[in-house]
């Protein structure tokens, strides 16, 4: 305050200017004191503390979340409703019936995944869904799950439910299965198929190699009748408009080490199971030049031969059936 009286006196010169300066100094000093008074001390971060990660709503513990949120949120949240109410949930699609003649003789490769080996017929059996019916393709089969989500707010002209697939390649594939490619790889080995080598682009193009794999798809139509077709029938050449004719070969993908030194299987990391564009990481590939450039994709979905999106399917992967001639 002594500074204030000095600045306001004639001795200090220009009283009005100095008065304003003194007022500004006092105001700033007061703000600093107030900030120190109301700011809480910093909370030390313990080694055991961790930043919460986003979770699947289906795995959230409502009571735990409500207890944690009550400390930081003034408004209570009904987490139980958030988890259980269909308005906020994505309901998993049903896989439906396994469409094989001998289900009791199959050997399941993984207790949690819909994948079996049929040693009697030399086939790997998968269950999945139709994820796309009218798109340009880079893949025929990808890894991913299907969900039916009920929207909480519906605008006029918008659907009340939306079919969703969480696979990274599901927007450019016809079929989606909740099975890692590495398990399918093991199944193909179990029925006697041998992998070759993935496609090579440098220094020159070398097509993928490996044993030929036949793919058949089965589903139930609207009348409940079982339908079956070869995988190639569900795909057409974008330019000729003819059904795909080339086979698939067991290229086998490859292993690599991630940034932490862990060994990874590329087809698992990318969700790539059966391709129609050449990728070194895919499990089954086409032995012909087929670009992955979006503006020049060679194949597209054959909508006329594909059931509606979300339809459960049974997929059979097996050895190429060679016709025998009789003299």
Low-confidence stretches: 1-13, 33-55, 69-87
The radius of gyration over CA amounts to 31 Å
Shape: globular
The assigned structural class equals alpha+beta
Largest sheet: 11 strands, mixed
The percent range for helix content is 10-25%
> How many E-type strands?
19
Q: In what range is the share of β-strand residues?
A: 15-25%
Count of helical stretches = 6
Mean pLDDT: 80
N-to-C CA distance: 119 Å
Order of helices and strands: HHHHEEEEEEEEEHEEEEEEHEEEE
Helix and strand topology:
Elements: H1 2-8, H2 15-38, H3 62-72, H4 79-84, E1 90-92, E2 107-108, E3 115-118, E4 123-130, E5 136-137, E6 139-143, E7 146-150, E8 161-165, E9 175-177, H5 181-190, E10 212-220, E11 226-230, E12 235-237, E13 248-250, E14 255-257, E15 263-265, H6 266-270, E16 272-275, E17 284-285, E18 299-301, E19 312-319
Parallel strand pairs: 6-9
Antiparallel strand pairs: 1-7, 2-3, 3-4, 4-9, 4-19, 5-18, 6-16, 7-8, 10-11, 10-13, 10-19, 12-18, 13-17, 14-15
Helix pairs in contact: 1-2
